Structures are given as structure tokens and as C-alpha cells.
Structure prediction request, 152 residues.
Amino acid sequence: MALDIDTTTKTTTYEDLPRAELAELAVLRGEGRFASNGAIVVNTGTRTGRSPMDRFIVDEPSTSDAIDWGEKALKTAQQMGDMEMVAHALNTVGSARMFCGDRDGEALLRNSLEISLEHGFHEQAARVYTNLSECLVEARDLAAAEDLLEEG
Prediction:
């Protein structure tokens, strides 16, 4: 790709650039450099670290829907005695709650994991390990995430 540095300014706005073009622009504009392996390297300064408390929680319709439908599915599954569906619904609701910043979702995920392991629902257990570890990383609880990954 051949970008013209003379027509590329820091005030130019770009949208949805391919990764290669974005990296080349960063280098051309003096905002980064290429490492020996081709990765882009940037110096973001001294005050760019994120605090665990520096998070915005968004009440997004798809998350609210996942919680609402998951709770309905959980109730139905419990009434039917379908333990695999119970595990699945607990996973869905727990994950959605944790992604919204509600740490109470962790108990639902751990309950789903317990049911999945007890009944040999390997696919459900794998989903819980994946979802819960990601939620714990997002919550910056890295020690708990690492313990869970070691376990699963």
C-alpha cells in the first residue's frame, strides 16, 4: 500500500481502515513504528493505564434480552427437570449479568459449572469455563481467571 505522507495529516479522519493501512498511517504520522516481526509498536505515554474502576456499564438491549429470555428458559427447564437446559440458562444469564458489571452473575456461572460437571455435560462445562474466565478477566480478577483456566 502506498500512502502519500503529504496528503496524510493528523487531522484527517478515517473510518474502518484495514489493519495494514491503519498501521502504515500510524508509522507515517510518527505515531508508531514497526517491530522486527511486523507488529506495530506505539508509545501511549505515562497516563494511559486503565483502572479497574474505570468502566462504563451499558444497558444494551441484547444483553437485557439475554437475561430476560435466559431467566424464562431457566424457569421452564427447572419445571421440566432438564438439568442440561438449566446449566445452559444459568450460563447465559450469569454471563450477561457479569458483562453488565453485575458480579452476582458469577454465582450463576459457578452453579452452571457445578451442574455441568456433576452430570457430565462437557459442552456446557466448556462454555462456562470460557465465559466465566472472560468475565473474570474483564472484571480484572486475573487471579480467579487464572485459577479457573488451570482447573478447566
User: Anything to note?
Assistant: The two ends are 44 Å apart (CA to CA). Helices lie at 19-28, 61-80, 83-99, 105-119, 122-138, 142-151. The chain is about 60% helix and 5% strand. The first strand starts at residue 33 and ends at 34.
